Amino acid sequence: MKNEELAKILFELGEYLEIENIPFKPRAYQSAAISLDNLDKDIEEIYKEEGLKGVEKIPGVGKSIALKIEEYLKTGTIEYLEKVRKNNPIDLKNLTKIEGLGPKRIYFLNKELGIRNVAELREAISKNKLKELKGFSEKSEKNILESISFMESSGLRYLLSDVKNDIEEIIQSLKKIKEVKKIEVAGSFRRKRETVGDIDILIASSFPIKIMNEFVTLPNIVKIWSKGETKASVRMAKGYDVDLRIVDLDSFGSAMQYFTGSKEHNVALRKLAISKGYKLNEYGLFKNNIFKAGKTEESIYKKLGMQYICPELRENRGEIELALKNKLPKLVELKDIKGDFHTHSSFAGTIISMEDIVLRAILKGYKYVGISDHTKDLKIENGLDEKQLISQREEIKKLNEKYNKKIRIFHGAEVNILKDGSLDIDDKVLKELDFVNIGVHSNFKMDKEAMTKRILKAMSNPYVTCLVHPTGKIVNKRDSFDLDLEKIFKFAKTNNVLLEVNSSERLDLNSLNIKKAKELGCKFFINTDTHILKQMDRMEYGVNEARRGWAEKKDIINTMPLKEIEKFLKKK
Ligand code: DGT
Ligand code: CA
Ligand code: CA
């Protein structure tokens, strides 16, 4: 499906138009991009079936954008984009990743100081040139530098959700080779880490050479680092590497165990094996050089006298000790989730109506869904004020009547935690909502004590249900706030405030913090933070994080049956 790829390209075009200060057009491109990304149907199919007319039917896509889409589908490129890319030697792609820099400001920096890329930006800051400019200050220089070094230190790790489909395609193509007896992805991908460095694929086969030859001719490979009889490593077009190893069927389990990692888990497990008189490596579990187990992973853990440990837990965070005592947690699963409490509707300016959200939730088999639009202090997201929230309530009432038999719709909001810890919506209205999410959306840079105090104050409001994206981090983009998390977790526990596991690219809380919060008795929502429909499908990434944080079904409030959750929400 080319929808996402095309959406990115339209978005980029919009950004170029924006820096060239062309009125209206940038918005048109950007809303067409969002609309395309939101589409369930494959754009190539639409074009095949209905031609240009079909493309023009997509909301927000007019004639001229439709022609560009057609050109891309036919030729794989858009001449106009190539031209603006050439005329504009500004590295927008990387510069826009910097916190607080949009196309307009980047263009301004280019005009004033000739800055074209991140390196030149850093150079200009080191000469204190930015702070002289209108709209910039010493503080913004410092923030930009911090953002650059964060980007660089997070290195080249890829969001699991960004590579998942590609990897599944690779697996499907390799599966077709008839000499492939078994194939699995190992490494951090299998442990479902939020980001992956490279991809490790394992194959069981007695004909490795043939498989190797086919592997290195897969589409989208841009470089072959190495290719041996049983080992190969390649670079994919998106920038990450794929390692392939081919092993015998008899040691497939032990190879899976070894290459799934984590390294820390392996080291601890190997130590345990030695203490029991075994030797453990990627070829098997041995006693006095006699093969004892290795065909399956299960057989290895069993021989070592412990429960099977699922990949998400293999981080040496205490799982080996618990498995030996037969006390591993029974982790929450995607199918346990019965609803979502973080969705944004067109009532506050997204392109998806409340009814779209409801229908998608029904399709997903949910028993309930919560609408949680932003509130007034967040102007760029068209945040709602008290009056609008009250009229939204009426709309939701109507929807509840219409879909009465199928699903329950809860009316909530994502209320802003202001700088002083107060909320931007009046208590009288908060009281009327079914649930209240609160989150920090401004003034990110506060010292630890002040930020902690600010959030605690907000959490003490009696109507608050859940603190959303508690640490403010965005994977590869923004670091966490400086926070005393232990204080916040303890307060959440005593005041019955839930903590969010946000499934978007925030992945906040992350697994370590989920584990700590759980140990302190906290409960959670796993939410998607949906702005376009297909984002409702990313619940699995939050569930991954929760599982990696040892969360069980009983820890996650949105696994409750409808009756129970109604009671739970009423208590507030
Ligand atoms: P990544 O790629 O950085 O996201 O993380 P992983 O965990 O996929 O790491 P990677 O690709 O370097 O190696 C895959 C697995 O192979 C790793 O999880 C455990 C195993 N492994 C790699 N190097 C060592 C090692 O030096 N000792 C042990 N025991 N295992 C290793
Ligand atoms: Ca890896
Ligand atoms: Ca690797």
Concise synopsis of the structure shown:
The protein is an alpha/beta fold and 572 residues long. It has 24 helices and 17 strands. It binds 2'-deoxyguanosine-5'-triphosphate and calcium ion (2 copies).
Description:
- By secondary structure, the chain is of the alpha/beta class.
- The chain folds into four domains: 3-153, DNA polymerase, domain 1; 158-247, Beta Polymerase, domain 2, CATH 3.30.460.10; 252-324, Beta Polymerase, domain 3, CATH 3.30.210.10; 334-571, Metal-dependent hydrolases (TIM Barrel), CATH 3.20.20.
- Helices cover 44% and strands 14% of the residues.
- The protein contains 24 helices and 17 strands.
- Helix 21 (485-494) links the parallel strand 15 and strand 16 (498-502).
- Helix 1 (3-19) crosses helix 7 (103-113) and helix 22 crosses helix 23 (539-548).
- The longest helix has 17 residues, at 3-19.
- The structure holds 2'-deoxyguanosine-5'-triphosphate and calcium ion (2 copies).
- Residues 187-188, 196-198, 200, 258-259, 261-263, 266-267 line the site of 2'-deoxyguanosine-5'-triphosphate.
